Predict the structure.
Amino acid sequence: VQTAGLFVIAIFVSDFAQAEKLERFPSIKSKLHRAPIFRHKSYPVAWTAAQKSNRPMLLYVSMPSCPHCVKMINSTYKNREVGTLISESFETVYVDRYAQADLVAKLRIKIYPTTILVSANNRVLDVIEGYVEPQTFRLRLKTELATQHFSTQKR
């Protein structure tokens, strides 16, 4: 997790060029927004939104031919409780392994799907690899949100 955290700041700067490329190619852009829960189409856009909302980011790294990735979207992300928690608590972005290959390489993703939680101050909070059942995933997200909430409170 710490190794991935070192790359997050560099990713933000270099991924602006990738975001501009996606804007020029609508067919790629439309494929990235696979489910309504994924609000943003690129890391820089999600990061900017996280700065404004002071909410953490949720990056879902996937690839189209991955059966576990499809299952994660269809059963876990589309679960009502998970969806509500995510939409109320995170700035979300779908990261396609092929369309955003530079970002995936910098994050050193080897297992698909991978969900990465990043704080608004660009610190990796958690890396969740592989398919996760909805209730287990929801509890893991709630734990990270609680941890982040207490670590940002001032006494």
The chain is about 55% helix and 15% strand. Helices lie at 2-24, 26-32, 43-53, 67-77, 80-89, 101-107, 134-152. The radius of gyration is 14 Å.
